[in-house]
Amino acid sequence: MYSFTPRGVCSQQINFSINDGIVKDVVFYGGCPGNLKGISQLIQGMQVEEAISKLRGITCGGKPTSCPDQLAMALEAGMKKEAV
């Protein structure tokens, strides 16, 4: 299980697992609950690389990032730890 502290968004923490390159058990703390639960369900079981490519670069309002973009960063960090 990985824990990531997002920056520049409403959510305060993202927890997730990566099993054999597959995204599992994504949970956001804080933020917009319905939207974030939806995102979590949509990427459940997805290849990490595919999830990153779909989420990376999404912005929120005038912010340069978003909760999905922060999740992409979290997944990238998790993949780096998996490779060690």
From TrEMBL:
Name the source organism: Natronincola ferrireducens
Protein name (record): ribonucleoside-diphosphate reductase
Q: What are the recorded GO MF terms, alphabetically?
A: nucleotide binding; ribonucleoside-diphosphate reductase activity, thioredoxin disulfide as acceptor
Q: According to the UniProt record, what class of enzyme is this?
A: oxidoreductase
Q: E.C. number, please? A: 1.17.4.1
Q: Which GO terms describe its biological process?
A: DNA biosynthetic process
Family according to the record: Belongs to the ribonucleoside diphosphate reductase class-2 family.
- Keywords in alphabetical order: DNA synthesis, Nucleotide-binding
UniProt-listed InterPro entries: CHP03905, TSCPD_dom
**Domain TSCPD, residue spans:** 4-77
Q: Which Pfam families would you find in this protein's record?
A: TSCPD
